[in-house]
Amino acid sequence: MPKKSGYDASNIKILGGLEAVRKRPSMYIGSTSKAGLHHLIYEVVDNSVDESLAGYCDSVEVSINKDNSITVVDNGRGIPIDIHKETKRPAAEVVLTTLHAGGKFGEGGYKVSGGLHGVGVSVVNALSEWMEVTVRRDGEVYQQSFERGNPKPEKRTKDKTAEEKTGTKITYLADKQIFDETDYDYETVAHRLKELAYLNKGLKIVFTDERSDKKKSETYKFDGGINEYVKHVNEGKDPLYKPPLYMVYEKDNIFVEVSLQHCKDYYDENMLSFVNCIKTKEGGTHVAGFKTAFTRSVNNFAKRYGIIKSDNETLSGDDVREGLAGVINVRIPNPQFEGQTKTKLGNGEVKGIVDSIVDEGVTNYLEKNPAVGRAIIEKALIAMRVRAAARKASELERKKSALDTATLPGKLADCTERDPAKCELFIVEGDSAGGSAKQGRDRMFQAILPLKGKILNVEKSRLDKILNNDEIRAMITAIGSGVITGLRENGGGEEEKEEGLSAEDIAKKLQYHKVVIMTDADVDGAHIRTLLLTFFFRYARPIVENGNLFIAQPPLYLLKKGKSQKWIYSEKELEDTFKKGGKEGVSIQRYKGLGEMNPEQLWDTTMNPETRTMLKVEIEDAESADEIFKMLMGSDVVPRKDFIYQYAKKVRWLDI
Asked: Each residue of 160-171: pLDDT tens digit?
């Protein structure tokens, strides 16, 4: 049974008001797109999770209702309902209608918390058509409703069961006046809720979707916590050791736990980090502390047991973390995040704490399991030698000077502009499309690199084989090897950089600041595009994270009627065009290959900066992306087959 504690109106501190939220919602939830829509759910759930972190809640129920409203129920203490001294209003009403009001600011409310530092639930209220709250506590059931943040009179009824069966129930309907769309994605919400269950050992989260006739419901509860999370991330892979290596520290309201595990058949690194249940996509001091300590501990073990005999031979962080998956879960009272999005932790003291527990934990583990230590080091030594050979080969092929075209890779047609910030590199499928692109481009700032068919599937290959592939070598040389994961010098050894390459580092190393994938609009073109995206995600992720990777959008059809013509870029656009203007007298030409367009057409539709449309490739969730690439491009056939069966019927428009 969750424990009880004094938590009342005196814990609620007020810092501001509510009106600006509806005027500038993106300032509070990031956007009014689907991402912002889903963020509302997370803010309400985060309040329940904060109760769990404080030790007062062990069950949360989340439902998408038939009318598309959201209900979140927990068995925590319940929002305080006594009268707040400053406002003379019920504390629950204050929390739900006032920015920066909550138990996260004063003493006695929460020692650690996530959410948006107290603005979360009031922002959800402000951006909802309506909200209803029911609180059970202190022998009363408190009910209140709101319309676009404006409160209606509350209702209170006596109920003795509310002394023991406490909790909060919030139901709201996102406002269509605010959001571009209000259709929730089940998988997106499920992923976040499952993540929260992994991070909060023993917390039960029930997720139900009642929108269709076939009600969907899943229960997430992981008594193994982040150890089970790591096993999930490594599902379908061959672990180098079992179970995952686990370390934990708890003192003075600071909690740190780390779980990690290497895999034999995997060469990428997949470390996930969280602070107060918030994913820190950009890492921070906790990640820096882990990297430094882990690299140092492995090197010390290798030298102590004579596996590495030369003082000059030191394993870098990239070497020791090749094939490593893990979770860093930190809870601290006053996290200092860089930016409102909370993607990077800045607390300096956390680095030392994480460094200390990882150093001690890894050292003790390797001493007790020397065979595992030797296996980790052997894998790292192979990685080090492969990277050294790859760097040497890459240096030999790198462009030696801006005018020395004799050293250009493959069939690259370079541009004359020497400022990388103004240059674009189009990676094109085949000689035919390459020929049209070379003739149609603006030679001043656009370079063309034709590829011979399909590149190697990097998901199934290790780095040495990848770098022996002619097409990949040509791409690396053209783009700049300094941004290719595992080829760059990263300092290694005792100290690790707090983060990866900065935007400034990437800008200096890239030879073209726009790298554009341009493939045919058919099945083969889609496959080549996927192979290229796999390469960039696995081995050139800094380019993606910095916003330098794009996908060209060539047209699918050319419609002609008399002397007029119109380019069509999707099947949906084609249908809408025919619905609006009809088909009579219209000739249709389908363009499956870029080479089918003459150079002028390719320039006008796909390459001209003034008229073209390009998609920027971004990583919203690296963990989900990792799972998708592993499933679609990996060696295991069954998950891929299941995925195709599951989604094939849902695809209506296939623009290939």
From this structure: 998 999 999 999
